[in-house]
Amino acid sequence: MNLKPFFTAVLTTATLLSCNTVKSTSNPVAKVPNPIQLFNGKDIKDWTVKIRSHEVGENYQNTFRVEDGLLKVRYDGYENFDQQYGHLGYNKPYGYYVLRLEYRFVGDQAKGGEGWAWRNSGAMLHSQSPNTMLKNQDFPISIEAQLLGGDNTPTSIRTTSNLCTPGTNVVYRNELFTPHCVNSNSKTYHGDQWVTADFIVLGDSVIRHVLEGETVLEYYKPQIGGGNVSNYDKTQKKDGELLKSGFIYLQSESHPIDFRKVELYDLEVYKNNPGQLKTVTEAIINTKRH
């Protein structure tokens, strides 16, 4: 399904009829799904931890924790980070959805973290299951929506909601994109401020990164391929296979980060109705943010 016109055409005016219903001239009634709170504010029982050099399910040194109603990534128990990249995977896969994160970087980077990992984290989309990752695998085969923070220097530029591709490729600007990362056109978010990031994921057709209601990056046909992932089970990497769905992870790359919201709007019911999909997605993106 070619959904490029979905993002390049002039936006259709949508009228909110109630808290969960939208209407447009082409789609009389389309219900906006209630958001699923992937992070419930209390615990991570619905998630699975996978940290490099550790078995699936081992939350080494309590890296991922819930305190003060926040999902936190911390390293106070580490002597040295030593490339122990961590990922916290939600236990249910999704294919068509809007993922909304509210995050902030805090504190100092863990000892031994690489320079590129300073104020660096991510949300992994269309990922392999944590139960298929090997003990020494560094990253899940996935599409990474990279999160970066600024250094408080007014003239510095460090965009966020970028794209990285561990074990994957995408079509970007009408060409197969095989480098590891590409920057968005976002502004730089400095300090410990909260940032709201939306990710529109529509199966194997298109993924769109949105900040403050504006698209900052868009690409197509997510698929398995390329490098930038190591020590994986070769049966899990079928190069050229389009990614229609997968698991969602939050990342640990050596810098402390907080998440106060991780919610998902499941759009599966609209995947075969482009008009309603467009209307509902626009309504979600335009909902009030903190």
UniProtKB/TrEMBL annotation:
Residues 36-264 form the 3-keto-alpha-glucoside-1,2-lyase/3-keto-2-hydroxy-glucal hydratase domain. GO terms for molecular function: hydrolase activity. It comes from the Bacteria. It holds the Pfam family 3keto-disac_hyd. InterPro entries: AL/BT2_dom. This is 3-keto-alpha-glucoside-1,2-lyase/3-keto-2-hydroxy-glucal hydratase domain-containing protein. It comes from Sphingobacterium nematocida.
